[in-house]
């Protein structure tokens, strides 16, 4: 199974039913079931689903995206240069526009199909296409700080903002004990490289 075998739909509050969706993570299941519609109504994020054409009530995968920014003034110079090394119009920019992939889940019944990497690529392509209605330079993920998940996102083109958790604590201005592990790690992908490669292929 690939995304091409499925239908892409926006969440419709009051109609899209997540009651049978289970991605294996209770917090993500709970978000899609109980919070996604409210987030969408309040314009905090928009959720989309992939479903089979013949059974559109059977949600195979879902994700939520929202507008975001990379606050460059709070980045150390070395990190700012790394993240913005291809930003040719960076002078005077306080923020780099971005899209946050806030939630991503694939139902347990379909996780063998490796749809997660396809969805990340789909979102990246989508936000560099002519269909995107606003500027968007980076794809951002606030990933759970688990080795398997960090590795998953790295294998799919995202990089850690910071090499150490302490650097990230300072950027986020978190008042937490240095011995406490961060719950999540910020990761990014520069979409300009994807856009340029797409233009070359035309």
UniProtKB/TrEMBL annotation:
SUPFAM superfamilies given in the database record: Acyl-CoA N-acyltransferases (Nat)
MF-aspect GO terms: acyltransferase activity
Keyword Acetylation: no
UniProt-listed Gene3D superfamilies: 3.40.630.30
Chloroplast in keyword set: no
InterPro entries from the UniProt entry: Acyl_CoA_acyltransferase
Keywords: Acyltransferase, Toxin-antitoxin system, Transferase
Domain of life according to the entry: Bacteria
Protein name per UniProt: N-acetyltransferase
Gene source species: Prevotella lacticifex
